[in-house]
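Moderator note: this is an archived Q&A kept for reference. The question asked for a predicted structure of one protein chain; the sequence and the answer are reproduced below.
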Amino acid sequence: MQPVINPKHPGLSVRVVDDGFATYIWGSDFSFEVSAYGAAQVGRSVSQWPVTPIAPYRKCYGIDPEEFSSFRDAPDSEIFMAYLDDQPVGHLVVSTNWNGFAHIDELAVHAPARRHGVAKALLDVAHFWSRKKKLPGIMLETQNNNLGACRLYERCGYVLGGIDHLRYRGIDRHTAEVALFWYRLFDDPLGTAISGPTAPRLVP
């Protein structure tokens, strides 16, 4: 796959992963601030969810560059890296799930590079990859303490399809963290064209 250039951010591009992936992972900050928990509700906008503010803290999920090593060069999965002015700033791991949907296994952006369209560009590439494989849609998971991610997915056309209050109780039986499953369903699952102003532009 050729590099994908984001027309709104000319210095931003997305490419298939290269040998610098591990170095980029170990040198990046993927933490985010948690300041509230949302009471997610299917069918209601994130802005309408009841919110419980908490004392802010930084949260970071450990990312192991070897965890998805088998996804490279596999026919049903891919790893993409985002670059801002030729510096690696984000990545996306996508695969074909057992239920036929594309599954975003991991999406992360280096903290200093956020608010530059990086996550949106990676989601656009996941859309392109999924449509090219003629899959019916995309699914992913986030949590109710990452409201910024929830708002992003909603803006990108994803809808909340499931809520799991027990998923993280094995780690902490008293946790308030809830798993949220988001889906983007394609109107024409057999089509390959991507329409609309946010379609990625492939360059030679």
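Archived answer notes: The first strand starts at residue 4 and ends at 6.
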